[in-house]
Amino acid sequence: MKVINALGRRKSAVARVYVSAGNGTIMINGRPLENYFHEDSLIYIVKQPLEVTGTTAQFDIKANIDGGGIKGQAEAMRLGIARALCEIDSEAYRHTLKSNGFLTRDAREVERKKPGRPGARKRFQFSKR
């Protein structure tokens, strides 16, 4: 099997994911998954597409992640892995991944701060007189 690459994005995080046949090792920016994401919840998020499709020990995954915070990076990686699995075998994995919501890009971004205001939506206190 050749190396399949896919792109995952979330907020300002971008994950370039490379999936190849192997025994289930996940490397992120040259570091093992457990050393990159220290929280169990983030490790769970990254592994969700593999666990749902039952392919945890079938593929080796390498990823390069840029930007964002750790939560956004984990979710970007989840989308990248799901897209790569879909590219490997669309008939077997697509329905399962789609029904669990792993193929949908979460497009929510931070709204920009407006000039003359303290934040994106916040206003300074109104004074009538």
Automatic annotation (TrEMBL):
Compositionally biased residues, Basic residues: 114-129
One Gene Ontology biological process: translation
Keywords on record: Ribonucleoprotein, Ribosomal protein
Gene3D superfamilies found in the cross-reference section: 3.30.230.10
Sequence segments annotated as region (Disordered): 108-129
Family annotation (InterPro entries): Ribosomal_Su5_D2-typ_SF, Ribosomal_uS9, Ribosomal_uS9_bac/plastid, Ribosomal_uS9_CS, Ribsml_uS5_D2-typ_fold_subgr
Classification via Pfam families: Ribosomal_S9 (PF00380)
GO molecular function, a single term: RNA binding
GO cellular component: cytosolic small ribosomal subunit
Family annotation (HAMAP family): Ribosomal_uS9_B
Assigned protein family: Belongs to the universal ribosomal protein uS9 family.
Stated name of the protein: Small ribosomal subunit protein uS9
Encoding gene per record: rpsI
